[in-house]
Amino acid sequence: MQLFLLVVLFLFTASFSYAQTQQPQAWLIYFGHTKIKDSKWGIHHELQLRDYQIIGDHNQTLARVGAQYQFKPYLQGTLGYGFVYTEAMGAPNNPFNEHRIYQEIMASHGIKTAKLRHRFRLEERFIENQDFRGRFRYNLFVDVPLTKYGFSAKGSYLAFYDEVFINLSDNSNIKAFDRNRAYAGLGYKVKNNLGIQLGYMRQHVGTAKGTNHILLSTHHQVHWK
Length: 225
Known about the structure:
8% helix, 11 strands, mainly beta
């Protein structure tokens, strides 16, 4: 826990120092998974609050819910729905809504003590006042334990991921490459079913200059008996 707090302090100090040249953005995230009794079914529930600053200029509110099925211990699928409310930076904020349907496959395996996950996601996007479009996403997650507790209660770990987004559209004005997100953070397991992560993400959208993000996330597993 002391290591986690030291890294938290370092990340926040670094982010405020970097703010002299570029304002970092902040995301507050809740990831939840409810396992339904002893079946192979579960429910994914997620809420994200995104800000153009550390706090004070709302960017997005994103909510997802999905039905998950565990095909194998290392393979699961999800069919879900997402709602996204977006505002422009500053004023006027010109808000608009987006509805998403998504399908994904998650495959996991280990290399020594590290855990690797591959997520393949297909999205159908219905954006207010825009034409329908699709998007493909691939994310590679790597988690590396730092203590003897591994990924159990009191365990700390390093978390990395890189995700690429590819647009699927007949509109020639929409480029195939949508964005890329690269993330590094530190996680701590408060309980076996509850963890927190603090990390840094660099995001590149299209050909625009990359942006910097501080992410604080909660990871929660619930067993529905």
